[in-house]
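BUG: 3D viewer hangs when loading the predicted structure for this chain

Environment: internal workstation, default settings.
Expected: structure renders.
Actual: progress bar stalls at 90%.

Input used:
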Amino acid sequence: MPKSKQKAKRRAAATTQDHDAPSDIIESAQEASLDDIRRANDESNDDDDDDDGAVAVASSSFAALAPAEDEPEDDNEDVAPAAAKPKKKKASKKKAKPAPESDDLDALLSAYRAETRGTDAASAASQSNASSDLSELNELLSVDSKRTDPEVELRKMFGSRVVSADSSVSKSRGSSRSRTLLVKPKQTWPPFAGAKGGLDMRELSDQDGIESRGRAERWFSYEHSPAYVEVQQRFLEAVMSLDGNNLIPVLRVHPYHTDTLLQLSEMALQQGNPNEALDFLDRAIFAYEKAAIPAFSLSSGNGRLDFLRIENRGFFRALLLKTANLVQRGTYSAAHEIAKALYSLDPYDDPMGVLLWLDFTAVKAQQYTFIEKLLASAREQRSTSAPDMLDLDGYPGLAFAAALSRFLAGAQGSEERLEEAILDFPMVVCYLTDKLGLRTPQIFSDHDRSARAVPSVRPDHCVHLLAQMYAHRSAVLYKPPEVQAWLQRGIAACESKLSAYAKPQKGTYPNAECPEGVLRNVIMSDVPSLKPMLSSGIVAWGAGYSYDNMPPKDAISSYDDRYFARLYKTQAQIDAMPVPGAASSQSTIEALMRRLGLFGGGGGDQSDDDGSDLD
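Structure tokens produced before the viewer hung:
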């Protein structure tokens, strides 16, 4: 089924499902900065250190607001891999048929049975192949728990002295908080037992509009209980007050409320407290992991989350911020594992654009076969069960990363792969050589595909956006002399071939469109050189509220009237409400802001406010 129809089916299913329906109440929140990812993307190619060129997102956070207690916790809440449950076969309901009256009827029935058997066999074979292909993708995206701890990676690089005193104390005392897959809890954190506060998870089904691709993957969604909705209301009221101090009482009572933790993380970063910002970010991820059900498994790579649901989008955002933070710290193996986890949540749409990190982290983590395996798996998926999956062959960063991985691994064929990447995406040569201070051959500068793209209707606009982001983040990978020499040999070999290269440009989109995930990544990264390539409409879309920045245009749920309706309405009244999209969510917020005098002459100039604001 085409992707647009799948999303429409999921939205339609949301009108009849008895899950987190919303209400008539306040839907508001304050815009907070995206410094986490923006700092990770600071231009550092001018530095001599290889790690400086890696786009880094400084992560930070406030001191813990609740006292720590050493209460043991129930390990049952850990996220644990579980074997996928086989689907139950529906019992066949065959109606009794009258006895055949002629040989002709017997012949017709025999032919029908033969045709039905053939169709069923073909369908079963197709589903089996799809599951097999997905199993390969899942294995590639499975998260290795041994590689997610940045402290282990730092010890290997620099020795145990780099480990913070806080971590050493935590280890010596023995952690009473069971470790999750993605983060290691600290002794300074409040006890988690009983602190979920209504954040739960359920597995989605066909009734939710989710199309199953066999047992190789399972779709899930976080859920908010009425108690959690009340906390969410207090959070939004605190954010809309424009006073960040109002978030502190919310966190004291609800120390693992994820949106509050993410908001405070960004505030701490703005105020120059990167360590506190990271602490809040890790606590949010920890809360999401502890609230997950055992069937949701990141370690097996088959757990999916529906990004169209507001309850899930915070986890996507948190993992993108965590990836960028780990890159900034130089812990590339851990960054690669977190990036894989994020991509595995929805490898069909990649709603946070984490592919723009994976082409960097795979090389820095020395996972040299990862990119080629990912490309092969995506091609297989597109040719079989997921024709609307993102076309990864249209990502220039992946093409160059595949060639570079071969070269660094000493494998054969790196020159051929490099030349293929250069001919497919000659604009990357212009952006890379500019970053590296190398001479750009005139034929590349003059070539039509290399023309610098600005917001326009050119179908290759997105390709240029991707190419510039790759050069910005990965130019540091080409700084070593031997890599530069390899790159220049490839460029020289393509000079005589470029003008005659007639293959269609890969990765083009009509009307200068671009996948939403790519745009989210670019906007959150805040790379100055890329800003002119974003249209005013995209910039306006990205100027949303921090708790749900850049919601999908076909969102199933948002923090709006329908979300809060469960506090005030019956289920029948909720079911009768329309499923909102991003537009209705925005109108609800605007109505509240007007009521508070924050639009049209009511609130004054926020730029004169003190540092306690969330801006």
